[in-house]
Design goal:
The complex is a heterodimer of chains A (234) and B (451). Chain A is α+β, with helices and mostly antiparallel strands and 234 residues long. Chain A contains 4 helices and 14 strands. Chain B is α/β, with parallel strands linked by helices and 451 residues long. Chain B has a domain at 2-159 and 306-375: FAD/NAD(P)-binding domain. Classes of the chains: A alpha+beta (234), B alpha/beta (451).
């Protein structure tokens, strides 16, 4: 995929405030990718009203090898426009989308030591009703070393050793059709490191270079209980 | 000339022992070491590229050294980092118990390359054994030549202290080390214990637990569980006899007692306050203060001390600071007292921290920041290491318990006073923690070996 043909946009307010945004060193930006409609296995667009609140759905975006969580927070409100920081700099997370702002998405790779959902097992999950490690309901928990993130708060770290929030994925909600698309992501440098770290596994699963292919206009969302054979309830 | 003479003398005495196997060699610091002065430079420089920035030499490619080599470079890219490691093949001590029960294979422990770690993280892996140190000229001597440093980190791990279990005769000690290894230092010990478990046909398998601050506090109990789980599954008519020098299980006691009582009533006999006072290797008898125990096979975990390398290099703390021959370092920043250029980290530290992988990994992240700051003339505040540690108490099915501990520092006393308030234990064994145990280890491998 030719990445250069995609326009780099900035949604972070700090970045927007700067005339010289192309060289921003202190702000982390969303990077725009072609929008991908979130669908079910049959390829039909997922209707927002049918997205469960009990677990995360897993989809690939913007590249086949990048796992993301789509989470329906239900009645739990998100905190919009909060200030967060990752390894690339400061950014603002705009909150969820949807009728109640209940839909959020993040790259499902633990920022501590890169645990992520795989077909065999996922050590990272959205614990809707809480868990031993979560310290409260509605959090994302990593079994490996107990990192806990709050998806209503931009996936900010609430407990454990993770050094930064999960990387955000930008969603677009169409109220007319009740459908969702993804059209941006933050943290491509981190994802590049993820690809290097798991290169052999990713080649085994997607074929040489397959994990680096763009997902295209549609990306399938699969409940994590079906996506991974085993999801430990840490 | 004089230096060369001293050097030759050293090589004939203490140096030879280190060349034979360094940090892991129990008892290596005995009489020969007592006379060996901290060695001098050979004037043969190691074949290394010229340093392109402040040279940081890290000795020891275990959890502590690998973490520091990687993260010091990340924190301060000007560092020219050289990792000196005597092994040419990595294999972790952490998670090795899981192999005995067939839950992982040897690749899980060993399929991690020193070369890749160095390339991925922009440092040099130098396969050599340390033979001496001259702190005045800031020269580290190795069997492959001398290396000049601006900062030196020594992370050589532990050695066994057989004296403390009453085995002072060098013949008995050698036999014990070879026939009944503790399995808490070198990969070759793990291979031997793995064979023993597969070959065990019944009877008594003794696992001893030493006193003091030994490596991996729950390790011997976890091993007892995993051996028992294996014997139970394979219907072996045998038991694991745990001779524990301590009056109570040292960590996660409720979780271990529950496993002993509920899963292994017929397979584990745990005897507290049974410090080993001697071993008759030929007759297969272990002696404690009042009793003798006959065994069919055993893993005899002697007491633990700071690596003999620390003693050899003259960096040992006085006995008032450490009764385990650990290093004489600053409590918070790990430099040798009075020398801001030399640091001792990982399990040779005198701290009461649990000597575990997660402790060394998190400590390493902090020390990398200390080194980066000091290379730039700055200081940072102390941060506690973290001990996140899983113990697999059942192999069929996999179930584990865990602890997540931090530590408190007292400014007045300049000591670590104990566990911090946010320390938690998770002692109800379950399958989720069983699975997490595997990913815990994989995460640490990724953190040390990948970019």
């Amino acid at each position: 995929m030719d990445r250069r043909r995609f326009v780099k946009v900035c949604t972070g307010s700090a970045a927007l405030a700067s005339a010289n945004w192309g060289r921003m060193a202190v702000a982390s930006d969303f990077e725009a990718f072609p929008a991908a409609k979130l669908t079910d296995r049959s390829g039909a667009p997922f209707k927002g009203t049918t997205i469960p609140t009990s677990e995360a759905l897993v989809f690939s975006y913007p590249l086949a090898g990048v796992p993301c969580f789509l989470i329906n927070l239900g009645d739990r409100p998100t905190k919009p426009n909060i200030a967060l920081k990752n390894e690339e700099g400061d950014y603002r997370w705009q909150g969820g989308v949807g009728p109640k702002g209940q839909f959020v998405a993040f790259v499902a790779i633990c920022t501590h030591q890169m645990s992520y959902p795989q077909p065999k097992v996922s050590y990272l999950r959205y614990a809707a009703s809480g868990s031993e490690l979560a310290g409260g309901p509605g959090r994302i928990v990593c079994c490996a070393h107990g990192s806990v993130y709050d998806p209503a708060d931009g996936a900010k770290v609430v407990i454990g050793p993770a050094p930064m929030p999960l990387m955000p994925v930008r969603l677009v909600y169409d109220p007319g059709t009740d459908e969702l698309s993804a059209d941006g992501i933050m943290g491509m440098a981190y994802i590049k490191r993820f690809f290097t770290t798991y290169k052999a596994d990713l080649i085994a699963r997607f074929g040489p270079g397959g994990y680096r292919q763009a997902v295209g206009e549609k990306t399938v969302c699969i409940p994590i209980s079906q996506y991974s054979g085993l999801v430990p309830t840490c | 000339m004089e230096e060369n003479n001293s050097r030759r003398h050293f090589m004939k005495t203490g140096g030879a022992l280190f060349a034979a196997g360094a940090a892991g060699l129990a008892g290596a610091a005995r009489s020969t070491m007592a006379n060996a002065a901290p060695a001098v430079a050979t004037h043969t420089m190691a074949a290394l590229p010229k340093a392109k920035g402040p040279r940081l030499v890290v000795v020891g490619g275990g959890t502590s050294g690998l973490t520091i080599a990687k993260y010091a470079k990340k924190e301060y890219p000007k560092f020219d980092v050289v990792l000196v490691e005597k092994r040419d093949m990595y294999s972790s001590c952490f998670s090795s118990n899981l192999w005995y029960a067939g839950l992982i294979n040897l690749e899980f422990l060993a399929d991690h390359s020193f070369l890749d770690a160095a390339v991925n993280n922009n440092y040099i892996y130098f396969n050599a054994t340390v033979t001496g140190l001259d702190r005045t000229s800031r020269t580290l001597s190795t069997n492959e030549g001398d290396i000049q440093y601006d900062f030196l980190v020594l992370a050589p791990g532990i050695s066994y202290d057989y004296d403390k279990i009453g085995v002072t005769d060098v013949d008995a000690m050698t036999a014990l080390r070879q026939i009944y290894p503790g399995g808490f230092i070198s990969p070759t010990e793990h291979v031997t214990i793995h064979r023993k478990v597969k070959e065990f046909e019944g009877g008594v398998f003794v696992q001893t637990v030493p006193s003091g601050n030994y490596r991996c506090l729950p390790g011997p109990y976890e091993r007892a569980c995993l051996l028992a789980s294996t014997f139970k599954k394979n219907k072996i008519k045998g038991k694991v006899l745990v001779l524990d020098a301590n009056p109570e299980i040292t960590i996660k006691k409720d979780g271990f007692h529950a496993a002993f009582n509920e899963l292994y009533r017929d397979y584990i006999e745990w005897l507290p306050s049974k410090a080993v006072t001697g071993v008759d290797v030929d007759r297969k008898i272990i002696k404690t203060e009042f009793d003798e125990y006959k065994f069919d096979d055993a893993a005899i975990y002697a007491n633990v001390r700071g690596s003999t390398l620390i003693e050899h290099l003259g960096l040992m703390a006085p006995s008032s600071k450490s009764n385990q021959k650990e290093a004489h370092i600053d409590t918070r920043f790990y430099n040798i007292i009075g020398d801001p250029h030399v640091y001792v980290t990982g399990d040779s530290r005198p701290h009461p921290y649990s000597k575990s992988a997660n402790t060394s990994n998190t400590e390493g992240h902090f020390i990398a920041k200390v080194l980066a700051a000091r290379a730039q003339g700055k200081e940072i505040s102390w941060v506690s290491p973290r001990t996140i540690c899983y113990s697999m108490v059942n192999a069929h099915p996999m179930e584990a318990i865990s602890v997540d501990a931090g530590y408190d520092y007292s400014t007045e006393k300049d000591i670590i006073t104990g566990f911090s308030k946010d320390t938690k234990t998770f002692e109800n064994r379950d399958a989720a923690k069983g699975e997490a145990t595997l990913e815990w280890a994989r995460g640490i491998y990724r953190d040390m070996f990948n970019a």
